[in-house]
Amino acid sequence: QVQLQDSGPGLVKPSQTLSLTCTVSGGSITNSYYYWSWIRQPPGKGLEWMGAIAYDGSTYYSPSLKSHASISRDTSKNQFVLQLSSVTPEDTAVYYCNSLGYWGQGTQVTVSS
Known about the structure:
There is one protein chain. The protein has strands at residues 3-7, 11-12, 18-25, 35-41, 48-54, 59-61, 69-74, 79-84, 93-99, 102-103, 107-111. It is mostly beta strands. The strands form two sheets. Strands 2, 4, 5, 6, 9, 10 and 11 form a seven-stranded mixed sheet that branches. It has a four-stranded antiparallel sheet with strand order 1-3-8-7, with no helix packed on it. β4 and β5 (48-54) form a beta hairpin.
């Protein structure tokens, strides 16, 4: 069974770069036709799909975030990484990694000085 575990800092200062890692077990991130996504939920709001990296390394982003989001992967560690640059308090949210019906536990990230 595929399991995802997301991790990262709980507090980031404005203008810094946020980096979150999702470690996948029970399956390879290079398995054909799997897409590995980052999704976030700001306080009091709904889920927002941020972007994804495909099994072949192709990346896809929400148009609203494309300018400051980047998703990469480390196949040797079976991990994929979200980097969000120039964060603001509006990036405060619970961040989840996801693939199909599998979800990480969620990482609360607060952007505050």
